[in-house]
Structure formats: C-alpha cells, structure tokens
Amino acid sequence: MAITIHQAKDAKLASIKLAALSSETKNNALKEIIKLLRAKSHEIFFANKNDIELSEKSKLGLPLIKRLKFDETKLNEVLEGIESLINLPDPVGETLAATELDKGLELYKVSCPIGVIGVIFESRPDALVQISALCLKSGNSVILKGGSEAFNTNRILTSIIAEACEKVGIPKGWIQLLETRSDVTEMLKMDKYIDLIIPRGSYEFVRYIMDNSNIAVLGHADGVCHVYIDKNAEVNMAVKVAVDSKVQYVSVCNAAETFLVHENIASNFLPVLKKNLEKFNVEIRGCVKTLKIIKVKAAIEKDWGAEYLDYIVSIKIVKNTDEAIDYINTYGSRHTDSIITSNKATAHYFMDLVDSANVFWNCSTRFSDGFRYGLGAEVGISTNKIHARGPVGLDGLLIYKWKLIGNGNIVADYSSGKSKFIHKKLNKIYSK
Q1: How sure is the predictor about 304, in pLDDT bands with cuts at 50, 70 and 90?
Q2: Which of 145, 183, 222, 333 is the most exposed place for a label (fewest CB within 10 A)?
Q3: pLDDT band at 63; cut points 50, 70, 90
C-alpha cells in the first residue's frame, strides 16, 4: 500500500509541472520515446517472448495471446501513432470561449489537463505506449496497471518511456506502473491524488471499478457491436463490410458480434455471407429464421448481447429497420453499430436513433478507433454521455479552467448598480 501512495503522490506533483510544459518540450519527449523504443526494440521483443511463453503454459486463450503479442509490426504501429501525435497541435491552453464581462474585465475559458489519469487495461502492451503518449501530449500524469500476462513487456516499456522523458526535462514521476492486483484496490481509494480512472476490460471488471471508487470513471464495460444489413443493401458490399467487421481482428471491442439481416434480403445475403465467413473458420449461430436459409448452429438467448471476442458470430433476421434499432438499443453496449444500405433516408434514420457512441453507414465497425479517427491513437473507448464519448484521444483527456482578468474590479460595484455587466462575446485568444 505504501508504495502505491508514494507513486500516486509523485504523479500528482509531476502533473502540476507537466501542465505548464511547452509544446516543444512535450514533442521533444515524444521524439525521444520513438528513438529509444527503436534502439531497445530487441529487449522489448525478448521480454514479450517471455510473456507469451508463460501465457501459453498457463493456457491463456488464443485471442488474448494475440493481443499480448508485441512484435515489429506492433512497434511500427505505435511509433506511427506517436508520430501522428507530434504532428497534432497542442490541445493545452486553447481558448474555448472569451467574454467581456465589462470594460477591463475579460473572462477566458481555457483548456487544461485533467491531472492524474489512472488506466487499467488487459493484455495489450501496445496500449501502454499509446496511453502514455496521449497523456504526455495532453499534459497529464498517468498511473498504469496492465494485465499480469504482460508483466515483463509492460515493465520494460514503462522504463524506456520514463528514461526518454527524463532526458528532455519531463518531471520525474509523471508515469507510474502498478503490478499487483492489490495495487488496484488501493488505487481506487486515492481520490485525493487521482482525477480520472479509465478501465479497459470485461463488463464485470468495469462495473467493479465503478462501484468501488469515488474517482470519476470513463470507459465502456463491453463491446457488443452490430452490423445491420438493410433490404436495400448491395450484397457484395454488405458481405465485405460484415466480414471485415468480424474477422479483421476478432479480439477487440469494436469487432462485430451480431449481424442483423432484413428479412427481404436474407435469402440472397446469408448463403454468400456463410461462404465467406467459413474461409476464416467463423462459427455462426443463427436465429430460427436463419436456420431455414443456411445450415448453422442454433443461437440461444445468451447469444443475443454476447461479446465473443472470438471467431463466433450470431445472426438474427429482423422485419424492418425499427426492429433492428430496437434490438441494438436493447442488447448492444452503446459502442459501435453500422448499417449497410443504399437508402440514404434509412441510413440517417438508423444513425439518429441508434443510441451508440459510434454509428456508421456502409463501413466496418473496425473504423471505431482513435488513430483511424485522426486523434493520435486513443486511451480507450467511452460509451459515457458526459465529458467524452467514442474513441478518447487528446480532447478526452482535457478539461478547462476559467481565467478572469480585471483591473481592480469588485462585485460590490455591480451589486449596487454602479457598474453593469455587458457580457460581450470576444473573438480573442487568451495569451500570457
């Protein structure tokens, strides 16, 4: 417990200094991280190899082992993400609004870091790099808790990032790594030091975090994503998008878990879909109507709303778009849902009524991603309806403060009627 409190205090102190750093200093740190990750890539790969071997011995599932892998491809992806972050403008210190309350009394709404972000994630060590880089660029300290299966990889990655940042003058202690389950329990009590927790894991895990901490929680509990094939869909396009949504990377939260198919197109669409999914050995579980068209395993009640994270998909035939929307809003997780149709009115109707953070038309659910959105990677996906929603990039790691600049102004003058507010909007940027 003492170690965790020490880490949290260090992160809090560092966050105050980090918030005031120049864009140049933060970008130089990101460049140094890229340089050092490349220079020590063999050490990273060796640590990751050990983690994978231990996970295989402990019978960790294949999807999770796939997420655990950190190889040359993963390294290049995270480095590309950091490069994109460097090229993004600094989000800190942006003037969001300016108001002249009275002559010589100007109010500015200015973006600023949240402070200390606690992030709990599983399996993917590449997420550690992405999260750290985003927090650094947005001026936040970060306390990381990765899965025990990535113990060695997470440790060396954190060490490299910390070393790179110290070289260019980033406050020591801004990045902290927790390594035990008991650390998480203590972390949840530290509302004095930690400003926001972002959990990435199972529904039960995220629910536990929300129920056992006074710290604000941002994230999503699970990723039950849908692709709805409308009666006006073009079959080849629908198959291509549905297959990509399911198999491009099955073990992530934006992979499709259920296909909803309009009854008027089902007999033409399903046989072609089945043939293409079988190329990837996808197990199909269908509703009663589906079973009458293609030979697949019968779906049961728990398949509706299931997050498989595996080569399994459920299919349900619906009467119309309203039924598809009702189904998604009932069984979905408010994450990402897509409609395939050539009917513009139907598409916009679907996108307006589906209550999800990401709603798509004629494209794969896998596009729901911070890097693909141009956010410079992401710290997670939020299905919340306050502060941040969808892929949480730089903007989601910022809050704002009000800065009022006067010249000896006092409230008594306005209470007495001597002075009056004018509340004039200004086209002006706050500057030091």
Answers
A1: very high
A2: 183
A3: confident
Tokens of 207: 């629910």
Q: Is the pLDDT of residue 250 over 80?
A: yes
Instruction: Count how many residues are written for the chain.
Output: 432
Other beta carbons within 10 Å of 431: 7
First to last CA, the chain: 41
Least Cα distance to 125 among 105, 146, 108, 139 occurs for 146
Show the tokens assigned to 173: 């202690």
pLDDT exceeds 90 at position 53: yes
CA distances to 78, 220, 359, 375 from 332, in Å: 30, 12, 12, 25
Cβ atoms 333, 224 nearer than 8 A? yes
Pairing of the two strands 95-102 and 105-113: antiparallel
Q: What is the pLDDT of residues 227-246, one digit of tens each?
A: 999 999 999 999 999 999 99
Q: What is the pLDDT of residues 212-230, one digit of tens each?
A: 999 998 876 678 999 999 9
What residue type is assigned to position 310 of the chain?
D
CA 347 vs CA 337, 340, 350, 430: distances in Å: 12, 8, 5, 42
Helical ranges in 383-430 per DSSP H: 411-416
Other Cβ atoms within 10 Å of 278 Cβ, number: 11
* Across 288-317, average pLDDT: 96
Token digits for 382? 């939020």
Contacts of 49 (CB under 8 A, 6+ apart): none
SS3 (DSSP) at 109:
strand
Residue 31 in tokens: 């460049």
Count of beta carbons in the 10 Å neighbourhood of residue 417: 7
